[in-house]
């Protein structure tokens, strides 16, 4: 599974509509409206590398109101759940 974090600049008047349209796309697991230098952050999770282009370049970027995207592909995922399993010694509390 490949994960991409997509930073999205959107037309300010269309942010809720843009976010909803992106969230409806296959391959998009979450869309966050955020503060800061971008308007939205989308999490894209796909099985194949070529699927990233299908979702991001062919669909997300073409949604009315999307001005610009910047994509980061994740190499490795860390989470509290993963860390707890990695350091568990199998001992009861």
Automatic annotation (TrEMBL):
- InterPro entries noted in UniProt: Dimeric_a/b-barrel, Tscrpt_reg_AsnC/Lrp_C
Q: State the source organism's domain of life.
A: Bacteria
Please state every residue range assigned to the domain named Transcription regulator AsnC/Lrp ligand binding: 6-77
State the name under which the record lists this protein.
Lrp/AsnC ligand binding domain-containing protein
Q: Which organism is it from?
A: Cellulomonas fengjieae
């Amino acid at each position: 599974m490949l994960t991409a974090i997509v930073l999205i600049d959107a037309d300010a008047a269309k942010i809720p509509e843009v976010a909803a349209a992106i969230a409806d796309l296959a391959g998009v697991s979450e869309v966050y409206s955020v503060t800061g230098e971008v308007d939205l952050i989308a999490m894209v999770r796909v099985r194949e590398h070529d699927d990233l282009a299908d979702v991001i370049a062919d669909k997300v970027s073409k949604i009315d109101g999307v001005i610009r995207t910047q994509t980061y592909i994740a190499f490795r995922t860390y989470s509290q759940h993963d860390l707890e399993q990695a350091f568990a010694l199998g001992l009861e509390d």
